[in-house]
Design a protein that fits this description.
ten-stranded mixed β-sheet; three-stranded antiparallel β-sheet; 13 strands; 285 residues; single chain; alpha/beta; 10 helices
Length: 285
């Protein structure tokens, strides 16, 4: 069985799009609801949406301090380890994966055949036309068309880590932010890096993580995380991003060649033709 796990602490408006996207790929979607001062009513907003779908379920509700990404990672590790031999897609609510050949089952078959237990991925940042931050569209409207511009601005702008461990066996431990994995107690980027034999070769088997974080509510959220001024929330990174966006009237400069923007308004792995160059850059970070 292919399972998906999402720790949901904000963005309930994305749920219909998220569920529709992943239902094409996975058998079951599990949600941990993460309530905090920043999202005190997320359960009451998310539950009616999740309960509409037979393949979705809430596995736990927690109340923790706001924007504690380390706690979020603990929850991911805790729940996927209950089915250690199953394949798990790990995705935050604003992360929409696209797979090589647009086929997850084929990717997993290759992993099983070659004894790989991890497939890594990297962020592709999504924004609206002209670098805007649109509203999340209503159910039934393509989120890829609402955010048609695909690029790579968060790392150049603020140093936000673009690495993601996106698909793995339940036995694999992931690190804070789901950016790396631990194998035999060693973090992947420090020990044999991404060339470890348990990891699918990234040149042919990497996952695009399309990041729909730049919606109309994101500026306020970025500022809130920055204002916490805590290491566990990566507040410094969020402050740098907020400050850079503020200086550009809260738009992303999609003409900046460093950001590698292209139009990619459908959920198709092959549309973003910069991916081969971008994944090599991400691996080097």
């Amino acid at each position: 069985m292919i399972r998906l796990l999402c720790v949901l602490g904000h963005g309930h408006e994305l749920l219909p799009h998220f569920i529709e996207h992943y239902t094409k790929y996975v058998d079951e979607l599990q949600f941990v609801i993460y309530e905090s001062k920043a999202s005190p009513r997320i359960l009451s907003r998310a539950k009616p949406i999740i309960e509409k779908y037979d393949n979705c379920k809430i596995v736990k509700v927690v109340r923790e301090r706001e924007f504690d990404w380390e706690k979020v990672t603990i929850l991911y590790n805790m729940f996927k380890s209950k089915k250690k031999n199953d394949w798990w897609v790990i995705a935050d609510i604003d992360e929409f994966h696209l797979y090589p050949n647009n086929n997850l089952e084929t990717l997993i078959d290759e992993c099983e055949k070659n004894l790989w237990s991890i497939v890594r991925g990297g962020f592709i940042d999504r924004v609206g036309p002209n670098g805007s931050f649109p509203m999340i569209p209503k159910e039934g409207t393509s989120i890829f068309k609402t955010f048609p511009m695909a690029g790579f601005f968060r790392y150049p702008m603020s140093g936000a880590c673009p690495n993601k461990v996106s698909l793995m066996k339940g036995s694999v431990e992931i690190t804070s932010g789901q950016h790396y994995a631990k194998i035999n107690g060693h973090t992947t980027w420090r020990w044999q890096g991404w060339n470890h034999p348990n990891i699918a070769p990234y040149n042919d088997y990497s996952i695009q993580v399309h990041h729909f974080k730049g919606d109309s509510t994101s500026i306020e959220r970025i500022k809130k995380v920055a204002d916490i001024n805590q290491d566990y929330a990566y507040s410094k990174e969020y402050f740098e991003m907020y400050d850079s966006l503020r200086r550009n009237n809260f738009r992303v400069d999609i003409s900046n060649e460093e950001y590698s923007f292209q139009r990619a308004d459908k959920p198709d792995f092959n549309l973003y033709t910069n991916w081969g160059t971008l994944i090599n850059e991400i691996v080097s970070i």
